[in-house]
Design a protein that fits this description.
Blueprint: H1 3-13, H2 21-36, E1 41-44, H3 48-61, H4 72-81, H5 83-92, E2 99-101, H6 106-115, H7 121-129, E3 135-139, H8 146-157, E4 161-166, H9 171-176, E5 179-182, H10 188-210
Parallel strand pairs: 1-2, 1-3, 3-4, 4-5
């Protein structure tokens, strides 16, 4: 399938998302451009959206529906370091699209929570990890989560592109973002139910393009 096929297939399965089809396409192009220029994706959310953040990073950092065989040049480099181990790694490692969920670092997160305040956790991690040209994917069903908004402000200040994945009206996070996907639902669980197929489609499109 092509990238466009994945998007069309998404709309066929979830007709309600037709209203945000162009927004999904725009977000895909933004993520694709970042990866093509050697940058990375940072992702964060709260609760179910924190789990979604980990899910997204997992789909991008290894094979999703494609095997992502390593380039021959990298296979040779691995074998040059250690013939036996390198051959094993070359056979089993998969191509990755650098993606970091800011949710899975309890030591660092609790240090910020203890020394500063919980609302600054994502902003601090974003400030430390983010580099100009990276993309920050901010997931919040309301669009108004304070810690996510603060992370968006930090991201913009450091020269990152900000993408909002939200619902309802999009909230203040959508207003500060460079691009937004505001799924057409009002209740939290219904918004989350639409977020998953949206980010799956984005991951499939990126994998199709790069691998």
């Amino acid at each position: 399938m092509t990238e466009q096929n994945y998007l069309e297939h998404l709309i066929e399965r979830y007709p309600k998302l037709a209203s945000v089809k162009d927004d999904i396409a725009r977000v895909y192009e933004m993520m694709k451009d970042a990866y093509a220029s050697g940058h990375k994706l940072l992702v964060a959310g709260n609760g179910g959206s924190a789990a979604d953040s980990e899910h997204i990073a997992g789909e991008l950092m290894k094979g999703f529906v494609k095997p992502r065989t390593l380039p021959e040049e990298m296979a040779k480099k691995l074998k040059a370091v250690d013939a036996e181990c390198g051959a094993c790694l070359a056979e089993n490692l998969q191509g990755a699209l650098p993606s970091l969920a800011l949710t899975g670092q309890p030591g660092l997160s609790t240090a910020v929570l203890n020394d500063l305040d919980g609302k600054f956790v994502y902003a601090q991690l974003l400030y430390g990890y983010g580099q100009e040209g990276d993309v920050f994917l901010a997931i919040t069903t309301s669009g108004n989560s304070e810690n996510i908004y603060m992370a968006c402000v930090a991201a913009k200040a450091k020269g990152l592109k900000v993408i909002a994945l939200t619902g309802k009206t999009g909230g203040k996070v959508a207003r500060i973002a460079d691009a937004s996907i505001i799924v057409p639902e009002q209740e939290t669980y219904k918004i989350q139910e639409l977020h998953l197929p949206v980010y799956h489609a984005l991951c499939l499109m990126l994998e199709e393009h790069f691998f």
